[in-house]
Amino acid sequence: MNILNRIQGILSPLGHDLSFAGAYLIETLIALIFAVTVVAGMVYFFRKYMARVQNRIGPNRVGKFGVLQVMADGLKLMQKESIFPDGRDDLPYKIAPIIVFLGLILAFIIVPYSNLYWFGSLTVTHSNVGIILIFAILAIMPIGEIFAGISSNNKYAMLGALRAVAKDISFEVPMMLSILAIIMIASVNTSQPLNLQNIVSVQNIPFGILEPIGLFIFFISMIARASYSPFDMGESDSELVTGDTTEYGGLRFGLFYMGLFGTIFLGSMLVSVLYLGGGSGPYESSIGFIWFLIKTIVLVVISLTVWLSMPRVRIDKFVNFGWKILLPLSFINLVITGIIILGGIA
Amino acid sequence: MVEIVEEPAGKDKRKIFRVKKEDLIPAMKSFYDQGYDHLSLITGIDRRDKIEVVYHLHSFQKNEYIVVKTETLNDTVPSVTSIWKSADWDEREQYDMLGITFEGHPDLRRILLPEGWSGYPLRKNYDLSKVQFVNMDEDGNDYASFDPGDGW
Amino acid sequence: METTKPVNKYVELNMGPQHPSTHGVLRLKLLLDGETVKRVEPVIGYLHRNAEKICELDYYCDSLLYFDRMDYVNSLSMEAGFLEAAEKLLGIEPPERAKWIRTIMAELSRIASHLVWAGAYGLDLGMLTPFFYVFDLREQLLNIFTEASGSRLLTNYMSIGGVYQDFNDKIIYMIKDFINSFPKKLEEVFNLFVKNDIFISRTKGIGILEKDVAISYGVTGPMLRGSGVDYDVRKAEPYLMYDKVNFDIPVSYAKDCLGRFLVRYEEMRQSVKIVKQAINKIPDGPYFNPKAKKSLMIRLRGEGEAYGRTESSKGEFGVYLVGDGTVKPYRVRVRSPTFKNLSVLRELGKDVMIADLVAISGSIDLVFGEVDR
Question: What topology is assigned to B4-108 in CATH?
Fold first, then answer.
């Protein structure tokens, strides 16, 4: 029993097809609301945590403990005048933030959220090829960044986009190879290793313990995907102003900003699903979602700590790192995975 | 033969040498050869009837600080950029502020004020009552004008 | 059929005057080949106020104000620099107590300046957190300055003939408290930098400044000492009370950004050492020379010329004063260390990456109140 069936059950007077369509729509809407809430919470939490790390107080004026600060900032961004640079490439300029945000929301729909009491499984989409789908969607988001950088008619944005591309191609190959190792190891116990639910359910031992190298590569890739320090060369506010988003303001900038924090959360969710067993834990069938959230939030805190304490890596050094260290490591990881499977440990 | 006249020291007890404008380059070269490898400061002083240019030289080996003075009636002084690279920006600044033309300087432009500024602020006859406005053209270069509403 | 435009290999980029890492209003004209900087030309003057002219129009004692506003993170050293020249010219010797007080304040000010620099350098390299830690440390110093002068940043504490106000017990207690706790906290903060591999990789071997280039361009201060020249005005030509205290001059032979970073770090520790000795050596006595009391101050006349050299946190800060026997200086000339240090960026910024250029220009320690005056 999952949440989709329950909603469909409520809508059943509409007939089979319509009720399923309605249920999917409502679930997607819930996922959207979840994503936006998570992002808003992330921003608030990030600011409070950053303040705590830096001996400051952080937002404390709007609402109790400043909880409404994010809302106030959002309202401010909405009210701002949209400024369009001269000589922009109009269509890519306007759709770039939408691509980034849409990619984020789509990815939120596919993540396996595990169970919560009578709601059952909270997962929106039960796809048999979920893992491929989610990384295909993740590959859409850089297109938004590149559109933004190239269409802005700004040299900083252009350089930022070039850096983003160089960064993306140097971490995505090792990332996909480490995912391949996950699929290999999952295929031992399940006939559908591309299904994210199955990947979660076969993790009697979390894959992060079996494949620490893979976890390392994937975590670094997720930092680079979300592009925060130390791998924020695309934005690099002290070098390229804000890189590809230099010419954006108001709500469009807000979408990029939400994309950044959403990607941090998404990356943490993926690490927890693929390497830490997602929602598995004691009383999995009733509070799996809580386990999943706890794991994710721990990873988010680790990510933010990394963000706050690291300087930026130079782009050429990161590209070197990606191709000369991460790529061989991911191959070694594949070999180790093969040995684990043959040795029957998994 | 280069004529270097030693003058009584100033209130800071530093040796002062005076050279003629024509002898400046050979005199400076000889100072450089004596170990004064650090040109600390170039100062132009508007003495109303003439311009005095003061060079503060320093030697790291000898740990000595000397003052070399020269003067000019027609606002031109030979440039010492060929001896010390440090003179580059200093001479540009003195050109900017006092209108001293340093002959042989590779790139004598205004440095602090925008191009097109009229007058040299540190001259004693500079008219302070005339207000000039600085604006930026579309290429990001500054220019000065007397019109407050000019520019974008 | 469209004609193809000639492809321009290089991109011109205008970095500044409003840019997050130009520390104010530096404008860098860059010629880029991809990520590599082929040529860099610093353009300055966006904060130009012509303090030299303003000082010419003012009394000697009033000119001091404009020196505060030159290097605004290190204003007490600027005051000491001006007074070094002005007191020679006017023939007024401050009493010994005032000299000790000035020494202490100038050193504390140097620490404050280096702290700001370290935080801003972290920001340049993308580190957010140390910035807040160093400002937290600096806050204690600003409290000391406030207690002494009534002002946090532009203190206007020293004056011709002495200092504005004597040290009271509270200030001495605050200073002692600060120097006791500071070295440990400083080490904590600096471990955030020097124990971070990414920071090391961003600074080590970057921005090599050879010794002869540095001397030829007139570079002084930590930049010069970072290039392996053992030179400090405080030792070479001691002013105030620097010949009566015991301290070392840190020199780095690495010539790179990391060397300059470590030189500044060690300088802060040496400053603490100086203050520690000085605070116990302050003699009793007047803190002000009665020849320069307030009602007589604007009547002070200077004749002749004097050049005062001091070591500010950025390098050799010199003030050249020429008097014509009136109550106002005839010519004031400031040797701004960062002006000279910045001019060497044309050499350092060749064939480096943009990220390195930011690291290099950060390591110069630019304060534009001083460069542009």
Answer: Beta Polymerase; domain 2 (3.30.460)
